[in-house]
């Protein structure tokens, strides 16, 4: 894009956002860093509607970094109910502990310090810097990468994205300085509402006139990576069902878990599968097994 086209592009994005931005608890003018940290971790692989419902409840239980840092594994797993991917919760708690110990409860503002925290990748780190600390920095999540790919490169299918290096170069160049927060929130909203992964609504998209790929992509879904399954159900679902049982009962035997999950006629293969599931949960620090007794890990 020429400099004049870039300016028109920026103006179109920011004007659209001014009148159409989505309202969320974490979309305050300058959200508290702790709010941004928790919401961004929750938003990883979880729908915004679920996070919007869960976030206020979570903050009632853990209103500060120090309150979260003191949470046991069992406390945090119970509080994470309905969110899935429980490892995220444990890493978030571990990050809170490190922030409390190393930074006296103040979330650091530098990229290197943020990336050194458990479970914090580049996107979450740059989101904190942009949204809460108002630092000029490019932010790239899956939505933003998809939008930039389609606008600046001719994508043949809806599953196609441009190389990460090229997207990062565009991301650094395209956002208006001193408006990093508004800009990246706007691009994410456009990606969520119009430039979607499977069925983009190009004709309704405010950026259609700038987009090289508009209306020209073949709808395509990338094949999912193979995941260990049993009875046609992925292991992550079995893990979730097992954790859900332990949230309610606190302590169970492996036999009772099999009974709850498979009924009284559980086979040897059923038992073998659940033993494997329990081993993965134990390895991740979510449960503790002592002989035949299973419970959520306390610390």
Structure description:
About 55% of the residues lie in helices and about 5% in strands. It has 14 helices and 5 strands. Helix 1 crosses helix 11, helix 12 packs across helix 14 and helix 13 crosses helix 14. The chain has about 300 residues and is mainly alpha-helical. The longest helix is centred in the N-terminal third of the chain and has 18 residues. It folds into 3 domains: about 90 residues, Helix-hairpin-Helix base-excision DNA repair enzymes (C-terminal) (Endonuclease Iii, domain 2, Orthogonal Bundle); about 100 residues, Endonuclease III, domain 1 (Orthogonal Bundle); about 70 residues, Arc Repressor Mutant, subunit A (Orthogonal Bundle). A hairpin with a 2-residue loop joins strand 1 and strand 2. The mean pLDDT is about 95. About 30% of the residues are buried. Strands 3-5-4 form a 3-stranded antiparallel β-sheet. It has a two-stranded antiparallel ribbon with strand order 1-2.
């Amino acid at each position: 894009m020429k400099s004049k086209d870039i300016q028109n592009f920026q103006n179109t994005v920011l004007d659209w956002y001014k009148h159409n931005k989505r309202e969320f608890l974490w979309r305050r003018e300058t959200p508290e860093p702790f709010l941004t940290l928790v919401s961004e971790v929750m938003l990883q692989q979880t729908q915004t509607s679920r996070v919007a419902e869960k976030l206020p409840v979570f903050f009632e239980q853990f209103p500060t970094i120090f309150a979260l840092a003191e949470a046991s594994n069992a406390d945090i797993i119970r509080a994470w109910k309905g969110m899935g991917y429980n490892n995220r919760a444990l890493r978030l708690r571990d990050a809170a502990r490190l922030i409390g110990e190393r930074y006296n409860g103040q979330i650091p503002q530098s990229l290197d310090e943020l990336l050194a925290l458990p479970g914090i990748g580049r996107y979450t780190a740059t989101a904190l810097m942009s949204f809460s600390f108002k630092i000029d920095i490019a932010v790239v999540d899956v939505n933003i990468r998809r939008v930039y790919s389609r606008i600046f490169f001719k994508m043949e299918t809806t599953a196609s994205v441009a190389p990460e290096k090229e997207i990062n170069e565009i991301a650094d160049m395209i956002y208006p300085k001193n408006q990093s927060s508004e800009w990246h929130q706007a691009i994410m909203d456009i990606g969520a509402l119009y430039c979607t992964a499977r069925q983009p609504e190009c004709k309704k998209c405010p950026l259609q006139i700038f987009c090289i790929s508009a209306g020209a992509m073949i709808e395509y879904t990338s094949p999912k990576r193979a995941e260990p399954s049993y009875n046609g159900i992925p292991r992550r679902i079995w893990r979730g069902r097992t954790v859900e049982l332990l949230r309610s009962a606190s302590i169970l035997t492996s036999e009772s878990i099999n009974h709850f999950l498979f009924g009284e006629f559980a086979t040897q293969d059923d038992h073998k599968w659940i033993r494997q599931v329990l081993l993965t949960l134990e390895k991740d620090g979510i449960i503790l097994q002592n002989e035949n007794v299973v419970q959520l890990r306390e610390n």
